Task: structure prediction
Amino acid sequence: MQEVVQRETGGLIEGKHNYESVTQKIASVAMGYKHPLPWYVVTALASAGVFMLIVTISWLLLRGVGIWGINQPNGWGFDIINFVWWIGIGHAGTLISAILLLLRQQWRTSINRFAEAMTIFAVMCAGIYPLLHTGRPWVAYWLLPIPNWTGAWPQFRSPLIWDVFAVTTYFTVSLLFWFTGLIPDFATLRDRAKKRISQIIYGILAMGWRGSAKHWHRYESAYLLLAGLSTPLVVSVHSIVSLDFAVSLIPGWHTTVFPPYFVAGAIYSGFAMVLTLVIPIRAWYKMQDFITMKHIDWMAKIMLATGLIVVYGYIMEIFTSLYSGHTAEVYLVSNRFFGPYAPLFWALLICNGLIPQVLWSAKMRQNLPLLFVISLIVNVGMWLERFVIIVTSLHRDFLPSSWGMYFPTIWDWTMFIGTISFFTFMMFLFVRYIPMIAIFEMRDLLHQTDKHRHAPAGAPAAHVATTEVSS
Amino acid sequence: MSVPLHGIIAEYETAEELLHAARRAREAGYTRMDAYSPFPVHGLAEAIGFEDYKVPWTVFLSGVAGAIAGFAMQYYISVIDYPLNVGGRPLFSWPAYIPVTFETTVLFAAFGAFIGMLAFNGLPQPYHPIFNAPRFERASQDRFFLCIEATDPLFDRTGTRHFLESTGARLVSEVEE
Result:
C-alpha cells in the first residue's frame, strides 16, 4: 500500500513547479486575475436566478406554502426532495476533506478546499427548504431549545428535531473546518496583496497568522481533530435525515437499510457535483497541473463504487417490501414499477444504475466531456431517487380513499432553479475571492514529492521519510 | 542600542536547511527561538524544543462538556420541565436522546478545536515584531526563517548573528521590537 501511495504521488502535481509557482498560480486567481469570459456569463445568469429565488421566497412569505404543489396526502414535496438532495451534495465535501485526510490520501489536497466550499453552500440551499416548509419561518426558533413565552419545548423523541441539530451542527462544523484550513492561505494573500483594501481584508481574515512552528504544531493537531470529528458527523447527518423517513410507518420508508443507503447516495451525488463543477472550472482557470487526470479518474471510481452501493440499496428496498408480504408494501413496489410515477422510477434506474456503469472503462474515465455528462446524469438521477422515495410512498399509502397525486407548481420550479442559481453564484464568488486550492497543502505536497524524487530507489514513503529527517 | 531588539532572524531556502539550523541552535544551547515556514514542516516543533498538548485536551474536555450539556438538556426538558405522555412511553427514553447528544458533543468539540487553537496561539494578533523582519512576507510563500529571540539567556548581538551566519542562512538580519 505504501508503495502504491508513493508511486501515485507523482501524478498529483504535473509540470515543473516550485513553492513560488504553486503559490503564484493559485493566489493569482483570487487577486486581480483577468477572469475568463464563462465566469462572467455564468455569474450573470446565476445572479438572475438568485433574484428569482428572492421573488419566490417573498411571494411564499406573503401567501404561504399553498403556492407550492404540496397537498394531502403529499405533505412533503419539492421542499423535502430538494432538502435531501442538497444535503447529500454537501457530503462529498466532508468526505474529501475529512475522511480522505484521515486515510492519508494525498490526492485530496487539490480538491478539498473546493469541495468544502461546495458543502457549505449546498447546506445553505438545503436549510432554506425546511425553514420555509415550517410555514411560519419567523417563529422557526421554536425548533431550537430556547425558552420562550409559550413555555413549550422541542420534542426530543422525534427525528425531525434530531435533524435540526444534525444540520445546524453540520453547517457550523463544516464552516469552522473550512475557515481553519483557510487561515494560512489568507496570510499568503495578505502578504502578496498590492492593494491596500485587499491587504486589510485578507489581513483581518488571516488574524495575524505568521507561520510559526509553534502555531503549526497546534494548528495541525486542531485540523486533524476537526477531521476526526467531521467523519462520524457526516455519517450521522444523512443517517438522521434518513431516519426522518425510516422512523415513520409509511410503506417504502419504514426500512432499516435507509441510513447506509442514504449516506452512500449522498456521497454518490456529492462526487457527481464535484465533477460537474471541477471539470469546467479546471479548464477555464487552467488548473490542469494541480487537478490532474488522476484526480478525475479517482473521483470517477468513487462515484462508480458508491453508485453500486446505491443500486444495492434499491434491490434491498424492493426485496424487503416483497418479502414482508404486507399488502401496502407489496402494492408500493408495483406502484413504483407500473404506477403513475413509473417513468420517473425507470429513469432513476437508468440514470443511477445503468449509465454510470460505463465508468468501469478506464478510457471512459479519461474522457472529460463524457464524464461531465455522466456527472449531470447522476445529479438528475439522485434527484429522481428522492422524488420517487417521497412521492410514491406518500401519494398512495394504506387508505385508498385518501390517495392523491402530487404535481409541482411553477413556484416549486422557480424555487428549485433559484437554489441551484444561488449555489452556483456562491461557488463562483468563492472561486473569485478565495484560493480554490489549499496553497499551503500544495506546498507541503510538493515538498513531499520532491523528497521522493531525490530519495534512492526503495526508500520509505514520504511521511516516513519526513519523520526520519526530524528524529 | 536605540531600538530594543526582538531577535535576530535568518532566512533559508529549504525546509531541510531550516530543520538543520534549528537543531544546531538547540545544540548550541539556545532555548528561546521560533521557526517560520510556509507549510507545516514535520519535526520542526521538536527541533526548536516545543511540545504542547493543550489543543487535544481542550477538544476532549469540550466534547465531554458537550455530551453532558446535550444529554442533561434533553433530560431536563423531557422529564422535568415539559413531560409529554406519548403513547404511554417512558419519559426518560434515553436511546432517543443519543442523536442529539452526539451532535452537541461534536459541536462543542469542534468549537474547542477552533477556539482552542486560536487562543493558545494568541490569535487574532494584529501586531507582532516578527513582521518587521526584512523579506518576512515570504514566510507565507516560499522561504523559511529561524529567529533567535533577544530574551534568550545566550543571546548576544554579534555572537548570535555569527552563529546564524554559520548555519548556511541566505540572509541574517536584526528584528526590531
Notes: Chain B has a mean pLDDT of 87. Chain B is about 45% helix and 15% strand.
